[in-house]
Amino acid sequence: MSWKVVFAKEFTEVMRDKRMRFQIFISPLIVTPLILAGIGTMAKREAKESQVRTAIVATVGFESVPKLAASLEATKKDAMRFVSSDEFSVESGIRARKFDAAIVLPSDAAEREQNDQTIPVQVRFDVANEDSRVSGMKVSEFLRKRSENIGAERLMEAGFSQQLAKPIDVGEVPVKGNGGKGVLMMSMMLPYMLVLYAVVGGLFVANDSVAGEKERGTLESLLVTPISREELARGKFAAVAAAALVSGILSLAGMLWPFYVKLGAFSWMTEGGAAFTGFQIASMALVLVPLSAMGAGILLTISTIARNQKEAQTWLGPVMMVVSVLSMMSMMMRPNTSVLVAAVPMLGPALVLKQALQSIINPAFIGIAAGSSVVYAILAVWLAARMFMKESVLLRT
Amino acid sequence: MIVVDALVKEYTGPKKQVTRAVDCVSFTAQPGEIFGLLGPNGAGKTTVLRMLATILQPTSGTAVIDGTDIREDPLSVRRKIGFLTGAAGLYDRLTPIQNLMYFGRLHGMHDDRIKRRIDTLVDKLDIGRYASRTCDKLSTGEKQRVAIARAMLHDPRVLYFDEPTSGLDVLAARTVMNFLRECRTEGRTILFSSHIMAEVEALCDRLTVIHCGVVTATGTIPELRERTGATTLEQLFLRCIGEDHDSLMNIPHPKGSAK
């Protein structure tokens, strides 16, 4: 059981290194939630500012319908400022950010108004410009409400009930129990973060444990001790996997604690609360364990092949890219997609995490994702052990 | 006792080309003897030592270390040997005591025995002053003392020294040299690899000269002097490896030819 001696020593070293302590404990538990809080607070403030700012709206054809124009002008309050323009200048004006949006009336607007016909109104805005997009939506909503009111006034003038124009009154009632908007947002981001931490959480430990030993000249001293290379590889693998698993679990804890510690900075994320069941947490753990083992196997293989830590980091670049892309794909995919996707490394487990956060229970998907992750983990560990046995690889300096 | 029998080590390159780093090396080192491996850089000394330490697997040939064949039972061989190089090879984030505890446990020693051995070695090598400081704060000489303690922790009967004074200052080098002499007095078998003539002359009872992986001469220094007719150890070494160009320079050039 010499691997336990190696494991214990590796972990003692981890605890003594500020860099590793930061990556395994501080970053997932504190830094990541704080970054999220910062991003959320900033996004919320920006959205609010976007809503309250006065939109500059170009108007085309208002002079032909003075009655309607006056009615719009009188009810728009401070949310908008109308600027008269012409058909040819509005689009270039929006693109140049001179106007936020434009209301364009047709050339026969006056005739339609006189005949009590519907006037088709165009609201133009730039989808690539956040201020313009929000202003466009604001103007559309304003015109829709004005249209309803004018219609109601006309019915009243004609002696009919206003309700004739509104046979259905829609009211939205969000169902509670599965958490609020924050949980939905978390189900987009958390799988990515968890997979990333679980796979690369052991990065520094892996780099230090073989490539670092080659670099510092300690590997030779280790290889002359009466411990088999299998045991040595096992001890080092256990240390890297433990670091990755701790990092993965702490990143989960880092995402959950804001829901229980009511801080203003997290309100955007935690409003509506969270509802995590034992099943959700168990299914997350089920995929995190093999994921950490697979990550540890890959990292240890790279660290063994590399001559030094610098070379290991160079090799890690493309690996990080693949891990990021695969786990990021989970953000864009529906959680209950085809079960075949469950077998895709990183993506399958990320989708299981997404399902768990959205209270979707799909045992077949969980089974395939966990099972395939175990197979990938075994392959990665086998590869790492094989590299460790090769003297031409292990003694490369 | 170390009996090396026709050790060969070949490496295969990326284009399948085979390089023979060690070619049929044989020698015997007796207990209570410092046996030198003398050769220029890249001669194959470290490869020989690594094979004898079972870090590398020989392509052919074998060696018996204190009665155990390196091919048949490498783990038992490692229990019998101590290895010291110029690089201390200590874990910087651990203290000397933690380093020694770690290596003791890897040798399968019980904690009580490790502690007793550490107490003895700390006293003997004067490590006490910095025993609880992390190794990254130690001087090169202090680190080398800890490395010596590590090599001796499990009380090995056979010791390998691979250029143990390289990069050390005079004081640290003297500690290593004194330690080597003490080990000889205690009857241990010592293999000492170096390219520094003065050290070899001062320490080695017998030596073997290796060049390009091949043993070119073996014997005591007086024997080798007599055989080569060399007056200095440097001349002896150069003659053994066939690089004594100075003697060629003394041969008069033909009349009129450019020097």
Notable traits:
A: 397 residues, mainly alpha, D-Maltodextrin-Binding Protein, domain 2, 2 domains, four-stranded mixed beta sheet, 16 helices, elongated, B: 259 residues, alpha/beta, six-stranded mixed beta sheet, four-stranded antiparallel beta sheet
Mean pLDDT of chain A, as a whole number? 86
Mean pLDDT of chain B: 88
Number of helices of chain A: 16
pLDDT below 50 for ≥5 consecutive residues: which ranges of chain B? 248-259
**Biggest sheet of chain B: strands, sense, closure?**
6 strands, mixed
What proportion of the residues of chain B is helical, as a percent range? 25-40%
The count of helical stretches of chain B stands at: 10
Would you count the extended β strands of chain A for me? 4
Kindly report the name of the CATH homologous superfamily of the largest domain in chain B. P-loop containing nucleotide triphosphate hydrolases
Give the class of chain B from helix and strand content and strand pairing.
Answer: alpha/beta
Share of β-strand residues of chain A: under 5%
Shape call of chain B: globular
CATH topology of the largest domain in chain B: Rossmann fold
- Give the % helix of chain A: 55-70%
